[in-house]
Amino acid sequence: MTESFHRSGEYQNPHEGPQQAPVNPEWPPPPAYAPAHAPHPKKRKRGPVALIAAVAIVAAAIGGGTAYGIQELTGNDTVASSSTSTTVVPAGQKGTVAGVAKAVSPSIVEISARSNAGSSTGSGVIITGDGEIVTNNHVISGASQIKVTTSDGTSYTAKVVGTDSKKDLALIKLENASGLKAATLGDSSGVRVGDQVVAIGSPEGLSGTVTSGIISALDRDVTVPTEEDQGQQQGQPDDGWPFEFGGRQFNGDTGNDTTTYKALQTDASLNPGNSGGALIDMNGTIIGINSAMYSPTGSASSSSDAGSVGLGFAIPINTVKADLAKLRAGATD
Question: DSSP labels for 187-241?
């Protein structure tokens, strides 16, 4: 026996002849029989991986720092990294200096280092929630005691984990710290001349100072000393960290033991004490560690030193990220 459905929706049995369709026919027609045991739908597992993925999508949708959000959710003390497209600044304040300052300031610290030669003041960037901090080697070089103050005024003692004098970088770790807000490390390869930037640090011991400017040049060859005793000049009044640039020396003699690195140049105002602090893009991600700035002294300045200086340099953050494993392993170069 063969059965068929007409396009009009009428059902016809060829052995019984035409029949009138019901007034309200069901479509599609009900099955001829119900299965004895209907399979139960499989339950979807919502484990930690699914939850993290969901949170990451939400974080991206609202413009938050996805990498930082995942770090906080999992509780891992890994460095939060991102491309320059990631933003940690609230959507309503994106692209503003005030927005960047509010988002990043809790991740910037003041560093006071003491040694037999004297004391120095610098800045640092928190990169993990349990207190890993990146700074310049010259800020903590030769220090017998390191004190770190966070943006909320809390003080910690810190120990040196690793140093790299050839890149003027150091990694220190706070003692008994947890729950700190880690900065998000950006991608300095995407930085362009003319990009707006914000600098945060502790110039002359004025913690949490915010300045702004632009990237004025890329890949500048900056030469700085690697000798430990030179680092103590950082805390002296009217003197900045000595460096060479363009065949000239600034802020004193760099000495015989020097190293040269490629730097980002900025006109954001930097002063002694900004060393080791953050250079930040307008998305709130760290693109550099401030390391050298021209700081003319009043008594020694000539007429050629008059006017706005606007000459500061930062170690690209990609250089920092490439050096982290070495620093964490306890390097003492």
Answer: -GGG--TT-EEEEEE-GGG-TTEEEEEEEEEEEEEEEEE--GGGGGGGGSTT---
Mean pLDDT to the nearest integer, 153-160? 98
15 is catalytic: no
Closest to 288 measured CA to CA, from 150, 123, 77: 123
Catalytic, 187? Answer: no
Residue whose structure tokens are 């990237």 = 215
Tracing tokens 């027609």 back to the chain, one arrives at: 29
Give the count of beta carbons closer than 10 Å to the beta carbon of residue 333: 15
- pLDDT band at 6; cut points 50, 70, 90: very low
Structure tokens at 140: 């903590």
What is the dihedral angle through the alpha carbons of 95, 98, 102, 104, rounded to the nearest 10 degrees?
A: 60
Residue 178 catalytic? no
Task: Please tell me which residue in 81, 82, 123, 138 is annotated as part of the active site.
Answer: 138
15-48 tens-digit pLDDT: 445 555 444 544 555 555 455 555 555 545 455 4
